[in-house]
Design a protein that fits this description.
213 residues; alpha/beta; 8 helices
Length: 213
Amino acid sequence: MEFIKEELMLYVEQYSQKESDLLVKINRETNLEVLRPRMLSGHLQGRVLSMLSKMISPKCILEIGTYTGYSALCLAEGLHKDGKLITIDNNEELKDRVDAYLAESEFKSQIDFKLGAALDIIPQLTESFDLIFIDADKTNYLNYYNLVIDKLKPGAFIIADNVLWSGKVVEPLADDDTDTESLLEFNKIVQSDKRVENVLFPIRDGLMIIRKL
């Protein structure tokens, strides 16, 4: 997942804004207590998400894939003062943990955490979004993209995580590797979609930044 040397990554993080105390807590506890902690955005990617959100100043954000709430809180840092963030996850085991972290945040009144399947919840949403972050099951990336593209305002953004998939996107495809196959298809569709413009950043596991025209 990491594409640069550890010492260089430490330097990059040293010269990036520090995490808040709450984000440090979530980072530490997720790594100590939760399965698959590599799913956490982490310091550098979290600061990137925060900076992008601050640049956009969104009034409405949708996050698909909450995990332990770290990325939601990073994105919330850029919310318009009257804005809101909807975050969706289907992991019931993490609900109490996420609720507790969000309750500690200064953004608690602006974040709506929905528990359930995103494919079922997204069609029910009536909001138009300025920023959407996709970081959930990889086999459904294209399904999520197709569901949300018409909910984006012109000039609004989608950020899709893990699109390099630990470099597997440029390696021979295994017969049963549905995740990599799905990400290859997603990247190809976005690249050819005339409704958007896009750039793929090799940050951590790959961030695809998509702007609706």
